[in-house]
Amino acid sequence: MTIENSLNFLGWSSLINIALLLYWFLILVYAHNLIYKLHTRWFKISVEKFDSIHYSGMMILKLITLFFNIIPYIVLKIIW
Fold this sequence. Notes:
Elements: H1 3-30, H2 32-40, H3 47-79
């Protein structure tokens, strides 16, 4: 795999992950009650716990995207 292919892969992967994170955020902002009601059919959780779980999940996705996609992309751009 060439550096150019790696840059393309990391760039598209970063873009897709950021789009997924934005989609997740927007769904929670605009359909919070609907999503909460859907999840409480299966699990008995409070609104605070529900929000905490989703916030933690978004934080993990953001960190994984940063460490495994964006930082390697920047490093490859600098050295190439």
